[in-house]
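Suppose you are handed a protein chain with no further information: no name, no annotation, nothing but its sequence. What can you learn? This example shows the usual starting point.
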Amino acid sequence: MNKLNIVKSSILIVLYLASLNTSITTLTEIFRFDGDGEELYGVADLLPLDNGDFVISDRLTNKVLKVSGTGKLVRLVGRDGRGPGEFSGGPDLIVESEGLLYVFDRSASRVVQVFDHDLNYVTTINIRIVRDAVAVNNSLMLLHYHDYLNNKFLHLYDYKGEIKSSLEHDAGSEEYTNLNYGHVLNIGKERMVLVYKHMNRIEYYNSEFELSKRVSIDSLPGQSPVYQRPGTDQIVRRFEGREREIVEKGSYWPEINIFQSAASDGKGNVYIQVNSELWDSENNIIVLNDQGTQTDSFNLPDHQELMAIGNDDRLYSKSASGDAVFVYQISR
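A reasonable first move is to predict its three-dimensional structure. Written in structure tokens, the prediction is:
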């Protein structure tokens, strides 16, 4: 068998196993970080660094912590206030680009403080309300928020806070409304993914906001957990082979929000954590490649939320209460 046929056969085997919900991925816990002497109360975001260290934000203590790849606290900054290294609404999102960390404050003014990798303060920029953010092309910051005045919800900024380009939807559209509860991910190669949580859908874009792929979670192999009853406005949740919890379409129905969290490894793969109570599978993490095809699924322990995937195949999660971070090694 030549090399090309071997590659094709390997791909077919992976896709076949994914269709059977058979995991080819295992998780090995490396360590649990619960503050190393500092109490954690509300872990909001986690950013893996290239050297294996990671940075976490705790919105309830107004602190940002740098942690080594072995689970030791390296440095901590943050306290109540509005000056450099201080947070008034709690540090939230953390974005890295060009060796700098951008930390978003949850205060009304949405102050973004900039630090180096050692958590030394560099500068501050001001940007309006943000839901999610990533760096794109190592030169632009992608910010996701609702701009009700201009019907735009996704902007590319330069690092001075000036808008470079935008993606627009009608203010009343379903996409516009549901992205308020979603994620935006950088999947590498100048591409990004939008995760519409309440619509259970993801979309693939390039850095020019050109749509290349749309994937519904209901189209994944063997799964149809939530659907609209034909000829009605009723949404049906399917669980353990039975129809459950019928609600009217258009009402607020978080109980049928299948997506729980999402992360990317920056190599084209998207990891989606699904609500295990709504998903007819023993695995609660779904892996999609850069074409939106499911390649694997595996299980994250109960009461943990997926936070990030490092470029060293480490998976980071937090406890449901936000008082601990778990670090796993992904093996295939």
